[in-house]
Amino acid sequence: MWRSVARRSSQVRRLLSTSAPPAGPLATVPAPCIVQKRGNDILNDPWYNKDTAFPLTERDRLGLRGLLPPRVMSFEQQYERFINSYRSLEKNTRGEPDSIVALAKWRILNRLHDRNETLYFRVLIDNIKDLAPVIYTPTVGLVCENYSGLFRRPRGMYFTAKDKGEMMSMIYNWPQEKVDMIVVTDGSRILGLGDLGVQGIGIPIGKLDLYVAAAGINPQKVLPVIIDVGTNNEKLLEDNLYLGLRQPRLEGEEYMAVVDEFMEAVHARWPQAVVQFEDFQMKWAFETLERYRNRFCMFNDDVQGTAGVALAGLLGAVRAQGRPLHDFTSQKIVVAGAGSAGIGVLSMAKQEMSRMLAKTGEEGHNQFWVLDKNGLITKDRKDLDPAVANFARGHGPNEIPDLHEGAMKESDSPRPAIFAMSNPTTKAECTPEDVFKHVGENAIFASGSPFSNVSLGNGKTGYANQANNMYLFPGIGLGALLSGARHISDDMLQAGAECLASYITDDEIQKGILFPEVSSIRHITARVGAAVVRAAVAEDLAEGCRTVGPKELGSMSESQTVEYVARNMWYPIYSPLVNNK
Ligand SMILES: NC(=O)c1ccc[n+]([C@@H]2O[C@H](COP(=O)([O-])OP(=O)(O)OC[C@H]3O[C@@H](n4cnc5c(N)ncnc54)[C@H](O)[C@@H]3O)[C@@H](O)[C@H]2O)c1
Ligand SMILES: O=C(O)C[C@H](O)C(=O)O
Ligand SMILES: [Mg+2]
C-alpha cells in the first residue's frame, strides 16, 4: 500500500477501542515509498509533496536542493501553521454572509488538497466534525452551484456524450495504475438543487474525501467521475462560463449507452473497483441499479446508503420509545418525497418489517404513506414510477387518513420522530427549533445537513442528529472492497445498517441521540465495514482482497474482522521517498 506504515498497531488499537476516536500521530516508522519522479515534478505532485518538510537527505536524493527555502519544518509545524491560517480566516470573515465564509473556507482547504494531500487529509481526519460541513454538505452544494466560476484545476475524470466509442481507451489516461473506489454522478439531481450538469462533479469529490477520511481509502486509489450527457438547466446552458456540454440531456437508449460504455471501461481496467452511483435523478438511479447490481460491484448511495441510515434512525426511535425492536412493525411511517431517497427508505423499512414478522409468523399491515409534490400517492395516480406504485394507497377504510389527523403534535407516540433529510441546509424540510417548539420536547429530530443542538431550557437539550448517508457509504464501499465481493447484496447493506443502529447506547437513545458523533466516523466505519465483510462471507460472495483469500476471511472472528478492516485503513503520514529513476 502506498505510504503504508511498517507497523500500525497504535492506530489499529485506537480504531478498536470503543471510546476515543482514532486521531493523532502514529508512533511507528513509515515504510519508504518509491517514486518515479524528481525535482519540481515531486513538488507539483500533491501525493508526494511535503512542501518545507522534505528533510535535507531527501532533498539531495530527489534533486530538490535549492528548490525550497532552507529551513526544514516538521509535519506538526506545518499542521499548526495551516490550522492557524484557517482560524484567522474564521476570525477575519466574522460577520460576513454565510455563503462568503463557507466558500472562503472551502477555497483554503481546496488549495491545500491541490498542493499536499498528506497534510490535507490529516487536517481533515483530525477536524472532521468542523470540516465535513465545508468539504461535504452543505458547502459542497454551493461549490457545485458555482463550480464553473470557482474552477482552477481539474480533479477526477470527465466522460461525456462526445466520448462515445473512446471510453475504453480514455480510461487509461488516468495516471494511477490501481483504483479501488469510484464515485460517479451524471449531475442530474445534485442534493436538492436539481440538475447542475458537469458542475455536479463536486459531489463525487466530496464523497471521496470522506472515503479517505472515514474509511481510510488510499487517496491515490480514488477516482471522482462525472458523466456529462448535457443539462436541462436553462440557466447553465445560457451561462458563458459553463464548463459542461451545452446541449440538452441525452435520454433513453442514447443515455444508457453512454453509462454502459463507462461501466465497461471501468471494469476492463479495474475489475475490482467499487463504483458508487450518486445523485442521479430517480429514473436513472433505479434503472442503473437494477441493470448493474448483479454484474458489477456497485451500489446507489442515495437509494441504498440513505435507506440504511434512515432505518438505523427509525430503529433508534423505537428504542427511544421504550419499546422492543419488534414494535417497528407497527410504526406508522409517512414519507414526504417519492424520489430515490424516499422510496429507497420505504423499501428497506418494508424489507426489515417483513424479516421481523417472518420470525413470529405474524401478518403485516400497510404502515406507509408517501407524498410527492402533488400530494399523497394513491393508486389512481397516472404514470407512477413502478418503484413508487408499490407504495400507492387504495381507497378502502383507513387507507387515506387525513394526514393532519396524524400530525406529529397530536401523535400518540411517546417519542415522535421527524427526519428532515433533504440537503443542503437551505432545502431542509424544517429546523430542529421548529420541531421542538411545535411537536414538543419529546420529539426526536434528525437532518441530512448539520444543525446545532437546541437548548430547551432547564438545562435540557434537544438533539439535532445528522441522518446522512455518510455514516454508511464509507463502510459499505470499504467492506465490499476488503471482502472482494462480486456484488453488493441486500444482506450486506442490511448488516451495515444494523451495525450502525446498534452503535448507540441506551443512555444516548433515551436522550434522543440516534447517531454517533461525526468525530468518531473512522471508528464507526471500521465496524460497518467489518459487518459488510462478514455478510459478504456469509453469502459466499467474498472472493478475498490482495493476499487475504475467502477462506481466511471466513475464519476470522467478529473482532478479527474489525481488526482486519482497521489495519487496512490508510493514514496520512509522510513516508521517506526513494527515487528509482
Ligand atoms: N440525508 C441523506 O443522507 C440524504 C440522502 C439522499 C438524498 N437526500 C436528500 O433528499 C432529497 C430528495 O432526494 P431524492 O433522491 O429522493 O430526490 P428525487 O428528485 O428523486 O425526489 C424528490 C421527491 O420529492 C418530491 N417533492 C418535491 N417537493 C415536495 C414537497 N413540497 N412535498 C412533498 N414532496 C415533494 C418530488 O415530487 C419527488 O418525488 C434531496 O434534497 C437530497 O439531497 C438526503
Ligand atoms: O450528499 C449528501 O450529503 C447526502 C446525499 O447523498 C444527498 O444526495 O443529499
Ligand atoms: Mg447523494
Summarize this structure as a short list of keywords or feature phrases.
581 residues, alpha/beta, Hemocyanin, N-terminal domain, Rossmann fold, 5-stranded parallel beta sheet, 3-stranded mixed beta sheet, 24 helices, globular, disordered N terminus, binds nicotinamide-adenine-dinucleotide, binds (2S)-2-hydroxybutanedioic acid, binds magnesium ion, oxidoreductase, NAD binding, Malic_NAD-bd
The gist of it:
The protein is α/β, with parallel strands linked by helices.
Distance between the termini: 20 Å
What is the name of the CATH superfamily of the largest domain? NAD(P)-binding Rossmann-like Domain
With helices defined by DSSP (H or I, 4 residues minimum), what is the helix count?
Answer: 24
- Share of helical residues: 40-55%
The overall strand count is 15
Strand content: 5-15%
Task: Write down the Rg.
Answer: 24 Å
Described by strand count, sense and barrel closure, the largest sheet is:
5 strands, parallel
CATH topology of the largest domain: Rossmann fold
Low-confidence stretches: 1-8, 18-26
Estimate the mean pLDDT confidence.
93
What is the global morphology?
globular
> What is the CATH-assigned architecture of the largest domain?
3-Layer(aba) Sandwich
Supply the helix-strand structural class.
alpha/beta
Kindly report the spatial arrangement of strands forming the biggest sheet: 2-4-3-5-6
Q: What is the number of independent domains?
A: 4
> Which ligands accompany this protein?
nicotinamide-adenine-dinucleotide, (2S)-2-hydroxybutanedioic acid, magnesium ion
**Could you name the CATH class of the largest domain?**
Alpha Beta
